[in-house]
Amino acid sequence: MRKGFTLVEVLLVVLILAVLASIVIPRIASSAGDAKDAKCDANIANLRRALELYAVNNDGEYPASNADFQSDILNSATYFPHGAPVCPYGDAYVFVPATDTITSHSH
Question: Is 73 exposed, middle or buried (0-12, 13-18, 19+ CB in 10 A)?
Fold first, then answer.
């Protein structure tokens, strides 16, 4: 009796592994994107809280510009003593004075 695997058996195993990989890899990649979105949403929520606290400390006034938001809130140890939140996509958080909102990449 011969020992070892036939070519058909090896190809069958490779085919099964390829099918499993084609199912698993997209799910893992999707999960990573979902995690980044959740982190970004949490960061924006923290920035909004800091923005509201800024308004309370400044007689209800919000920063006049995105530059003021960057210097007075993001780069301030008063609001973020351990450093400002960083977008997981590498984009900047932008304050829109017209609507008093904070945005990032697709949010």
Answer: buried
SS3 (DSSP) at 98:
coil
State how far the Cα of 21 lies from the Cα of 57, in Å rounded to an integer: 54
**What pTM did the predictor assign?**
0.70
Residue corresponding to tokens 């984009």: 91
Task: Give residue-wise pLDDT tens across range 39-88.
Answer: 999 999 999 999 999 999 999 999 999 999 999 999 989 999 999 999 99
The continuous run of DSSP H or E covering 76 comes out as: none
How far apart CA 59 and CA 48 sit, in angstroms, is 17
What are the residues facing 62 on neighbouring strands? Answer: none
Helices (H), the chain: 7-57, 66-69
Question: Which residues make beta-bridge pairs with 95?
Answer: 102
Q: Is the dihedral angle over the CA atoms 59, 71, 98, 46 positive or is it negative?
A: negative
